[in-house]
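Need tokens for this chain, all 323 residues.
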Amino acid sequence: MKRIEPRTTYTELGSYCNILHCSVIYALKNYKTYEKYNYTLSLLRHYILENYNLNLQSDESLKEQILELKEKLNKNQFNLDKQSLNKTIKIEDLGLKDYKQTWDYQEQLFKSIIDTKIKNRRENTNLKTYNYFLFVEHPHVYTLGKSGNISNLLLNEQQLTAKGAKFYKINRGGDITYHGPGQIVGYPILDLENFFTDIHKYLRFLEEVIILTLAEYGLKANRSNGETGVWLDVGTPFARKICAMGVRASRWVTMHGFALNVNANLGYFDNIIPCGIRGKAVTSLNVELGKELIDQTEVKEKLLKHFTSLFNAELLRKTPLVK
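Here are the structure tokens for all 323 residues:
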């Protein structure tokens, strides 16, 4: 289908409506970018239906497109209604699971959402997209993001094997990090178009989930400018990271997520330059509270509570939370 650029050929509509109507036509003829205009279309739905007789400047082609749009609106063939958004998130706790197996499972869920969105756009269907949130603990493993530097891994292959650890170069953002027992890893696999289309807001919300959870344990956590994750004592010589983050997003669908140190063996962080940031320490919730073990199920419940509130979501639990 020939691509049509936004046009302003209306004579009897205000300039604001000119821009909005042209955005509708642009969206109609550029279906791949349609969902960016979902809110615009929603605003115009009533207006177009109530203003059928538009006076156009001798532009029969444009008039035909408006009439085509009106017909589709009458048949409700666009995803205009808020009830088409799916804010339910399926929660699954995988327990202790191999990193590669979990990564493959993430990719499977991620692809299923992408495939549904492509089908909706190509076939003009209104299938809802699903959202998932995976909790998991991994056996000892180091992962390097797309922009990471392999020199930040301080072990060779033989040393990795001796420590019972694996290494993977993966498709998230960020540098190198460690996952292991005693760490709560959360992988939200969401269609952000069910919530909001702003990846920066998404990252800030993930950070806020961690910050609010730690506050329930009496810890004041913060973001650190230019440094990923969630930190304690930011801006002091004692700054230390308690939660690492790295995500991937495509077509507004997310994967990967956060790793919160709860009962982590911090010795494994000595084998890397965490997130490529030199001179900064790493900590764990049990260390900060001076306890041998923290109830990880309790921490997960708090994480879900704040996640649900911030994302205005509903939870559907596929499995009970693993202790």
